[in-house]
Amino acid sequence: MGVNELEYKDQQPFYMVLVDDGTDRYAAQENLVPDGAMAPIDHPAVGRYFESFHGSYYLPNEQKFQEYPDDNVIRETASFAMETNMIKML
């Protein structure tokens, strides 16, 4: 589907997503649907972006925290969870 065929066209965020088949693709926000599995994905690029999986979300790796320092609250929350063995390390 082309961008101009989407309801919100190019006036929405587009995300690079890691697909179950091992590929990376860009997807419009309106096309994203949670799969509900709440399980880690098996994709060769996961470690490029994330360091651990916590039940329903991934914790970004150090490089991503350096790129997005305003997201440090996520790291602080996850640090507590790691100390209490609540996070599965990749």
TrEMBL record:
Molecular function, one GO term: DNA binding
Domain Hemimethylated DNA-binding stretches: 3-55
InterPro entries with a match to the protein in the record: Hemimethylated_DNA-bd_dom, Hemimethylated_DNA-bd_sf
Protein name from the UniProt record: F-box only protein 21
Species for this entry: Trichonephila clavata
Encoding gene (name): Fbxo21
